[in-house]
Amino acid sequence: MSARSKARKRALDMLYVAEVRELPIADVLATETVRHLDQPERASSWDYARQIVTGIDEARYEIDGVIADHAQGWSIARMPVLDRCILRMGVWELRFNPEVPDAVAIAEAVELAQSLSTDDSAGFVNGVLGAVASGRGPSGRTVAEDQESR
């Protein structure tokens, strides 16, 4: 497993803990920072994991808006917590991290959903992130086509 894949898993762990325990991201990051200092063997995944979690925290409303716009028939609150966290990571990488190719961001998110969530989660994550990456809106048309039809 690559360092970035490990970082994504570590970021997912932090996001999940924050959601389930209803903790601020800053508190979870503080706890993980202490753990990071005590476990230098995990250092390779720390910087990117922290970057993901911090980025999601800073752009949470925008990210959730993108997810809501592309998750047809699903509100953010109705999604399983794990799927919601995976989607937030995927959207953050697609929209805010130009270093990661779209195909890699989607594949990594789908892999996490496949290995950690429900049987339907991988397809759901793939569909939402694919729509985000291609610029499609909720209707299936591109964002530009949606705007033209208004």
Secondary structure layout:
Blueprint: H1 3-21, H2 25-38, H3 43-58, H4 60-70, H5 81-96, H6 102-116, H7 121-134, H8 143-148
Helix pairs in contact: 1-2, 1-3, 1-5, 2-3, 3-5, 4-5, 5-6, 5-7, 6-7
Q: What does this protein look like?
A:
The structure is a single chain. The chain contains 8 helices and no strands. It has helices at 3-21, 25-38, 43-58, 60-70, 81-96, 102-116, 121-134, 143-148. It is globular and about 45 Å long. 33% of the residues are buried. Mean pLDDT is 88; it is low at 138-150.
Question: Which terms summarize this structure?
Answer:
single chain; 150 residues; mainly alpha; 74% helix
Structural class given helices, strands, pairing? mainly alpha
> How far is the first residue's CA from the last residue's CA?
46 Å
What does the average pLDDT come to? 88
Percentage of helical residues?
over 70%
Beta-strand content: under 5%
Instruction: Please state the overall shape, judged from the principal axes of the Cα atoms.
Output: globular
User: What's the β-strand tally?
Assistant: 0
Order of helical and strand elements: HHHHHHHH
State Rg. 16 Å
Helix count? 8
Main sheet attributes: strand count, strand direction, barrel closure: none
Low-confidence stretches: 138-150
